[in-house]
Amino acid sequence: MNTTHDETADAASTDESGRMGPAVLASVASVALALYFYYVRGDKQRGQFIGLWPATILGLATYRRLGEIKRLLQEDAT
């Protein structure tokens, strides 16, 4: 397997068609929402709370993707 770190990161952030997946888009949107609440509305506590969402969203998406990979590997093994 001769993939570089950059190729692996690109593959993780895009879906099969080469577009950004819904998890990445949701994470970017939550960062924008966090910045809005923190700076524009002045609600720093809510901005910080929403700022924690991207890691959770991406973690759940990664867990789901790993489950799909595991299933595919098990199918290939049989």
From TrEMBL:
The portions of this protein that span the membrane are: 20-39
Q: What is this protein called?
A: Uncharacterized protein
Question: What keywords were assigned to this record?
Answer: Membrane, Transmembrane, Transmembrane helix
Its organism's taxonomic lineage begins at: Archaea, Methanobacteriati, Methanobacteriota, Stenosarchaea group, Halobacteria
- What organism does the record attribute this protein to? Haloarcula terrestris
